Request: fold
Amino acid sequence: MEKKKPIVATTSLAGCFGCHMSILDIDERILSLIDLVEFNKSPINDIKKFTEYCDIGIIEGSCCNSENVYTLKEFRKNCRVLISLGECSIMGGIPSMRNGIPIRECFEEAYMHGPSVKGHNPEMVLPNDPELPMILDRVYPCHEIVKIDYYLPGCPPRADLIYDALAALISGNELKLPYEVVKYD
Amino acid sequence: MKNAFPDSTDELEIGEIVYQDTMIDTVRDILKKYDHNPTRLMDILIDTQSEFGYIQPLIVAEISRQLNISNVDIEQTLSFYHFFSTKPTGKYTVYLNNSVIANMMGREDVARTFEREAGCKFGEVSADGLIGLFSTSCIGMSDQEPAALINGTVFTMLTPFRVKEIIRDLKGGKKLDEIIVEGLGDGANALPEINSMVHNNIRKKGPILADGYKPGEALKKIMKIKPEEVIAEVKLSNIRGRGGAGFPTGMKWEICRNAPSDEKYIFCNADEGEPGTFKDRVILTEYPKMLMEGMAIAGYAVGAKKGILYVRHEYKYLQEYLEKIIEGGRKKNYLGRNICGKEGFDFDIRIQFGAGAYVCGEESALIESAEGKRGEPRDRPPFPVESGYLQKPTIVNNVETLCSIVKIVNHGALWYRSMGTKESSGTKVISISGDCKYSGVYEIEWGFSVTDVLEMVGASDVQAVQVGGPSGTLIGQNEFNRTLSYTDLSTGGSIIIFNKQRDLIKDVVLNFTNFFIDESCGSCTTCRNIPVMLRQKLEKILNARGVQKDIEDMIEWAKVLKASRCGLGLTAANPIVTSIRNFRPLYDKKIQHGKEYDSNFDMLAAVKESCDAVGRVPNIHSN
Amino acid sequence: MTNNVIKFLIDGKEYLAKNGTFIIDVARESGIFIPTLCNIPGIKPRGSCRMCTVSVNGRYMSACTTPISEGMDVRTNTPDLIDLRKAILEIMFVEGNHICPVCEKSGNCDLQALGYRYQILVSRFPHQYPKRTIDALNPHLIKDHNRCILCKRCIRTIKDEQGRGFFAFHKRGHKIEISIDHSMNELLTEEVAQRAVDICPTGALLKKESGYQTPISNRKYERTPIGSDIEHAHQ
Reply:
């Protein structure tokens, strides 16, 4: 019987999709990756809901709102191994630059006084529809919400790092990281 | 304090200018008093602070100009010490102790009463500027808590009722010494130059605290022998430093004596800041002449002509008294030139006050502080005995050590060694507080077991004993047979007793950890951060969100502190490490079992601020 | 202190050096890299960062402040020491707000470079996200406290002709900051600012209007780990 291919799911929380771009940046190796793994829930194939338990979940981005937390917990439940991919996921990254600034000030800047909104919100409305995700008091790295198993840093992580790490994880071989691939920018 | 609080707030601007001019004049006088010497910056700031109640940028700029050092170099010292302030702290500044013992004795109710009666929170000044409320680390009154300093005057055994009276009287315009209704303390505390309600509570006297001390006897004795012989006698006595570190005193003196230098210094370390310690305060109050004599003996032995008595700011109420004692010593020729008629034996003492920093109890930090700098411990080598105060060879000895030396000189090293144990000779003055009938000061021989101590002080139902203060060890019943000695349970003098009603993690370990966080000088990466992160772990466990891994993490993280420069950093995790070692079931009871991971994330708490800001009700669906 | 040449061990190998030389300097000259973020050769050491912690006769000591002595047994690379250094680095990354993707110093930063060398993928410690400020009042200099690791290099080296400091610590413990004396702004010339920027191991001190001078692929620590120069000089 053919061995079942490992199933991979990915998501982007408070991130810029740059890490996902870097996954695609493994060039022609993407073909061998597709031979190696099967993708489940992921923006890459646009599968919206988990359809089965996955082997690997890859998380880009940090948690800045309640929906991020919900999605992250969903991934923890549905994946055997979770990988934090990129600076935001690992340490909050650029979104976390708002940490320490009162939320009200952030809202006022974003919806009332910021250069792109100034004059366009005369009633000074702050969005409060119950359908909207709720903003968290600060941006949280993923491992401060759920247990994370592996970390691949970079902004974005180098394509080689992603490929080598996935290949090592799937094959069970030890992951050796050359100096050049571990970067924080 | 004068002029700092003008009666009328709508004064004319011109009045303000005139006031600033007089203020500058006052600062200039202070600077003149200290010869415009930058190494006396501590004294300059202490005098300025007590003159105006706070030190504003205008004054900093003036000191900077006059001493020709930059503003930031003044501010780095100014901002280091707890009792300096750059903002007004109230006409009456209350510093209420927040030590574990204060809490055990009812600090919480006292603090709330202060807030209610003063009309402001801790960390604030009342709207009328009359009363400022602040917390402070242990003020050395553990046997009479809760206690507070109000403009330097000590108020002990506070109750909510007393607090109401005190605030009422202050609001009514009474002076501080008029509102002490408890009567004055025992012994020298009642002298007019101390005039304090503090009690000595000496409960067991030994050879050091014995009555019948005759000032000058030891000095006259050593006049007949060579300095080297004095050192030999001290070495023979086997005495080790009584401040806690336990370095052999004779060896310290010998190294200093052999260090070539035109000038040497004797420091007496009276900065006892280890929470639960107060024995040096009692010695300073009752046996200051013995201490001065000990310093002079040290001066003779190592060839130093100058002594500095570094006293913690909390004991500033003893200033007038101590100065009078020094003056008296000069008159008797126990200090000054040609002491006891011995040609060329000159030795004099000045007092250096601290300004609120536990770390200054570390000898090199103490020296830095006395040089007018931040109390950051130095890198060693060189050790102070080779290069200390103003780069000169310097001895730093604890109050009790120097007093013990006097007795060793009087009665001989062998007499001293007949007390205590083989490795720990002599006696130890200890401060005992907490859950016992008779807290106070006891002089015991080394080798006393903890059980003996507990029986001596009338403690029953004991759950744990903290030996050596927060930087020491927390032990439980199965170790009460251990003995106080340098080879077993070493202590600088603090013993705190906790009964079975106390929550050791919440009441004790968390309080001690907060203490180390407040008192870290911040120089080492490790000590500046690890205790803060350990506190977060403790809070998580107390919040019932802890898991097994959190306890393991604490043990591992604590190891990182071993890379710190000084004793504060090296011991900052001792409360956590020793309580995990000796009271593991208490931690196990508080953590979640069968759960491997808990992030401590709380969705409802995390969205509250944003929901409040936009005006919506949190709708949380868990998954 | 004498000029005697003495014998001692580093990682089991025997070396000779002048009595009193600091361990870190002896190691550097012998091709052994001991990481540091606060030490500057030729300037009186301070031992603030604790990165250079080594084991001396079994005790942890900072290599930058401890002089060698006869027969000393120095270990620089035991597994415990490596983990300790990683832990100290990881503390620094969570203590401040080190967001490399937006930092002009990225690629030329010593803190980051040590993270690369030790391949730190995540900090074991929780991010503190302290609220910190940026001081841009000086015409030549920006001080971004988010990125400061409090190594004291600027405090120790940048002084005016009379020996007055431009920089100093402010407060204590975990609240500590570095402050700049703005009353001395006139003396803090472009040249002084440049020296301060050069001495700063991170992006906490930056020259105004001069970021991103080096193309990404040419940055200092892009391809070779920090310390390679020391190690390769002796191969």
The longest strand of chain B covers residues 427-434. Chain B has 24 helices and 15 strands. Residues 13-33 of chain B form the longest helix (21 residues).
